TrEMBL record:
Keywords: Phosphoprotein. Gene3D superfamilies: 3.40.50.2300, LytTr DNA-binding domain. The lineage of its organism: Bacteria, Pseudomonadati, Bacteroidota, Flavobacteriia, Flavobacteriales. This is LytR/AlgR family response regulator transcription factor. Residues 5-116 form the Response regulatory domain. The modification 4-aspartylphosphate is found at residue 56. PROSITE patterns: HTH_LYTTR (PS50930), RESPONSE_REGULATORY (PS50110).
Length: 232
């Protein structure tokens, strides 16, 4: 995989120097430019595509959110800022991570690795097909989960809970949207509140679906025929 190309924009030079220092300690990362002037950064980014931009938000002339919106393409973005009130807005803009200053190296490294994972997913590289995992956002952070680790998805109104063998993720998304987005990967609705991977189903009866790992989920009456047709 090629190096992750990065441009960092912050009106505070010490913050830029810290990012330069952190990037120098990481493999497969290329910090190509840093800018204290966001207007200069915008002009550069309009003419030069990069994989990731690391942006402060509260800057003179143009803030980080406005800068990102004015780009003719959509690079990955990490906001690194003192401001906490823009986290929801960042979530809506599908940024990879939202870091609050001061940030230590380990936290920064994890955010960069999230960006690498997401770029890998977008590019569908030869070494890792997108069918092997899904990417989603939970608590303002992009996550990668292998399909083999997914147990089930449960709906709670505007949210879903994605249950894996290790942990649970709360995601701001409706069941119908999740189903449509990942149906091609083998996810199937078995109940108004449950979605599972067809490859993880061991058996089913009139009332339940039994997973290969021992889990048992309810089978909705209106979903029985669809499940039978899908598996047969």
């Amino acid at each position: 995989m090629a190096n992750l190309t990065i441009v960092s924009v912050d009106d505070e030079y010490p913050a830029l120097e810290l990012i330069r220092k952190y990037c120098a300690q990481m493999e497969d990362v290329d910090l190509v430019k840093i800018f204290q002037d966001p207007e200069q950064a915008l002009e550069y980014l309009k003419e030069n595509r990069v994989d990731l931009v690391i942006l402060d938000i509260n800057m003179p002339y143009i803030n980080g959110i406005e800068l990102l919106r004015q780009l003719p393409y959509q690079p990955l973005c990490i906001f690194l800022t003192l401001e906490t009130q823009y986290a929801v807005k960042a979530f809506e803009m599908d940024v990879v991570h939202y870091l609050v200053k001061p940030v230590d190296f380990d936290t920064f490294r994890k955010a960069i690795n999230k960006a690498k994972d997401f770029l890998q997913f977008k590019n569908s590289t030869k070494h890792k097909k997108k069918e092997d995992f899904i990417m989603f956002k939970s608590n303002y952070v992009m996550h990668k989960v292998l399909l083999e680790d997914v147990r089930w998805v449960q709906g709670f109104g505007e949210y879903i809970i994605l249950v894996t063998h290790l942990k649970k993720y709360m995601i701001l998304e409706r069941m119908t949207n999740f189903e449509e987005k990942f149906q091609s990967l083998g996810f199937i609705r078995i109940h108004k509140s449950y979605i599972v991977l067809s490859s993880h189903i061991g058996s089913y009866d009139t009332a339940h679906v039994y997973l290969k790992d021992g889990g048992k989920l309810p089978l909705g009456r209106t979903y029985k025929n669809a499940l039978k047709a899908y598996l047969n």
